[in-house]
Design goal:
Length: about 210
């Protein structure tokens, strides 16, 4: 896994670098080969900030951590990014198509009743008075699986998906990643309304409401 470290007004110690490498290796095992990560360490007054961006073949993760120390901020950012990677892996496993159900034999073969023997056949030329019975034919009965019942969705009201202050698209993406939300409705400085949501493939999609 390729890693890139950037320090702004702070110093990256060897222990801090080791902590970051161990956390990023866990994320790389989830996302697979070809993963690239960049970590930026900075400070604003008394707050230490760590910004983490991980790029995979089909996914881009962004996470941030703020704390009194760089170790705590890095721990928050890695935990947030690892949680996003696990959610992406779980969505891919669920989205895989299941094999179709095969037809199940639920009943035994049904045999036709014996045909009645006519009187002329009873008095046959052989004199035995017996008619040869027709061979039985077996019919297999198959039943198809019933259609699954349609379950009405459970709707829960939530007002946290609406941003209260105007923000740019970049700020909205960072805010959605920081809150770990798949949907965010926000306005820009001009008053235009946008909807930012995460698709099943993990990519963020922006929808402009006319």
């Amino acid at each position: 896994m390729e890693m890139e470290f950037t320090a702004r007004q702070v110093k990256i110690s060897r222990a801090l670098r080791t902590q970051a490498e161990e956390g990023l290796q866990r994320i790389a095992r989830i996302l697979g080969k070809g993963t690239h990560a960049s970590i930026t360490f900075s400070a604003q007054r008394h707050v230490q900030i760590v910004e983490l961006i991980v790029k995979g073949r089909l996914l881009k993760l962004a996470a941030a951590g703020k704390a009194d120390t760089l170790e705590s901020a890095l721990r928050q950012a890695i935990a947030h990014a690892e949680h996003q990677a696990q959610r992406y892996r779980d969505r891919r496993l669920v989205s895989k198509r299941l094999p179709k159900e095969e037809k199940v034999l639920t009943a035994l073969p049904v045999a036709r009743p014996k045909a009645r023997v006519s009187p002329a056949a009873e008095a046959g030329e052989d004199g035995q008075g017996r008619a040869r019975a027709k061979a039985r034919t077996s019919i297999a009965v198959h039943s198809f699986p019933a259609k699954p019942a349609v379950v009405e969705p459970h709707i829960v009201k939530n007002g946290e998906a609406v941003a209260l202050r105007p923000m740019t698209i970049e700020e909205a993406v960072k805010d959605a990643e920081f809150r770990d939300r798949d949907l965010l409705i926000f306005r820009n400085a001009s008053g235009d309304v946008f909807v930012l949501h995460r698709r099943r493939d993990g990519q963020m999609e922006l929808v402009e409401i006319p």
